[in-house]
Every structure is written in structure tokens, then in C-alpha cells.
Fold this sequence. Notes:
Layout: E1 19-22, E2 25-28, H1 29-42, H2 48-61, E3 72-75, E4 95-101, E5 104-109, H3 110-118
Antiparallel strand pairs: 1-2, 3-4, 4-5
Amino acid sequence: MAHPICPRCADPIASTEQAKTVAGLTYHAGCWDLKMRAERRSAGPVAEAVIRTRLQTLIQAGALPGEVPTSVVAVNAPGHGCTGCETTIEDAQLQFQVTPEPGVVLYFHRRCLALWVSERPADR
């Protein structure tokens, strides 16, 4: 049986366990990650209103705590997706790591973290 060809790198995909199929196209998992990062980077800045709406929705759904944890750490680990705006945090950008509960790690741009703080139910 012929292996599918990754549309990003044009190499065969030997194992479906390491593949991602989207809209009928099968990518290597790494190629899919690179594709998504590139798309997030090219999207440009996200409007503040869009980020606020997303944060409010996440808080209301319980996916994001209403209270910002007391432990927020500035880290240099580029490539993570920002929880607030869903874009990739780039090398040159300061990012903040938040661990609201054991095993859950969230990453934010400075701006997105500030918006989360301002969207807490206690502040409204």
C-alpha cells in the first residue's frame, strides 16, 4: 500500500500514528505544527475586542480560571500558542507562563495576560 504524501514537505508519511489529517490532506505531525505556526504568525495582531471576547468565553466555560493565579513566571520558550489571542509567541516576545492547577500550563503575551487580569469577574 502506498503511503500518503505530506503536502508541506512532499515526503511519504510512513506512520499514521505520526500524522495529522485535515480536510482530506495528511501531514506529518511536525509539518502540521510548522504550518499552523506560520499561519498564526502571518495573521497579524489580534484586535483587543476579539481577545476580550475569547477570554470571557473561556472563563464562563470554566476552561480558564476567573482568578489569575498568584504565580506568573516570565519565560523564554518561544513557539507556544498564546491562550489569549491564539497566535504563536515568537522568539523576541516576552511570554508569561501560568500554572493555574497542577498539570495545566498556559502561556500568554504580556498584553493578553493584562487583558485576562482585567476580565476577571471580581473586577467587573
